[in-house]
Amino acid sequence: MNTAIPQFSITRSFDAPRELVWRAWTDEAELAQWLHPFGVSTDSIAFDVRVGGRYRYTMTNVETGERFPTGGEFLEVEPFDRLVFTWGEPDAPVEGTPVITLTFLPDGDRTEFVLHLRGYDGTPGDGFVYDGWDEALTNFGRHLAGERLG
Prior knowledge:
single chain, 150 residues, 3 helices, START-like_dom_sf, SRPBCC domain-containing protein, ASHA1/2-like_C
């Protein structure tokens, strides 16, 4: 019997100091600009970044208008180093909900960044969770580079 918990990681290197990368992950105004895959917008967002704080945001498919409310609870907040939170329905209980761990590693004026999602099996080309996060991280990098996202 395979009891392994499904999970995956995506690693990126951003041309920005980790303090700026951290801020772009924790500031609502910045998150609203990039926290979504391609073809989707983020319409509402509230982040209470502290242990036990909750967050929620709603993404809307630009073509169909379908809405995707998303949220969770912050489990660990170590400014500039690590952010751990559940990821699912906005009011889902902590137990049994997938968990995302973000790791911010300084590399001179750059930041090595790792997103690890525990609770979903994702692979490149799945057209679902892995690809959605991969596209969101592409938007994130473009945002950090100062590009205005449509």
